Amino acid sequence: MATGDTDISICSDALILLGSTTISSFSEGTDLASACSRLYPDLRDTLISRYPWSWSLKKVKLARLATAPLNEWKYAYQLPGSILTGVIALFSSGSASANSLNYGWELYDDQVYTNLETVYIDYQTTIAESDLPVYFVRMLRTALAGELAIPVTDQTQKADYFRTMAVGTPGESGRGGLFREAANIDSRGQINKVVQDYSLIAVRN
């Protein structure tokens, strides 16, 4: 369920966790607002990028560019400007029965090179705060408290406390704590993915 939050409300919640005052905007001219505006966007996108959250995935048909690639491929397609983590899956059709393709294309900078005449991709993107589910917002504001702890309170102990609560210990590679809980909740609504098209499977068969 979406929370209806904003970037300001999430930042203010993180400040409350630190025992600080809230902010009304990123441009209000305070040190708190400046710290939030610098740290929050990168942290949000990093946490989204760490896991294929169901609500962060999109499918789109790519636009073919007029200029052909300068190599063996016939066509170049422009990737969306909102893409976070690269191409998750690529298809030659928008049909519901289309299988993803693991070969026959390459990524160059912000473009896909291929001989396919039509290209669809699944990709991950940033979502408006008002549409973020409550389990992700809880983890996000806790992680933000960890990022803000030193500039706001000058206490490394608080920074370590909130970071551990949000993403676990260093040994958990950022996938423990509330992050693990959020990922488990999100995974309940996703079907198991089966590999449909892979060259090694084709050879074995």
Q: How would you describe the overall organization of this protein?
A:
By secondary structure, this protein is of the alpha+beta class. Helices cover 39% and strands 17% of the residues. A four-stranded antiparallel sheet has the order 2-3-6-5, with no helix packed on it. A hairpin with a 2-residue loop joins strand 5 and strand 6. Helix 3 (134-153) packs antiparallel against helix 4 (156-167), helix 3 (134-153) runs antiparallel to helix 5 (177-187) and helix 4 packs parallel to helix 5. The chain is elongated, with a radius of gyration of 21 Å.
Defining key terms:
205 residues, four-stranded antiparallel β-sheet, three-stranded antiparallel β-sheet, elongated, disordered C terminus
Helix content: 25-40%
Q: Figure out the total of helices.
A: 6
Dominant shape:
elongated
Main sheet overview: 4 strands, antiparallel
Distance between the termini: 43 Å
Please write the string of helix (H) and strand (E) elements: HHEEEEEEEHHHH
Structural class: alpha+beta
* Count of the separate structural domains: 2
Tell me how many strands there are.
7
* Rounded radius of gyration (Å): 21 Å
Q: Strand order of the main beta sheet, please?
A: 2-3-6-5
Enumerate the spans where pLDDT stays under 50 for 5 or more consecutive residues: 194-205
The residue-averaged pLDDT reads 91
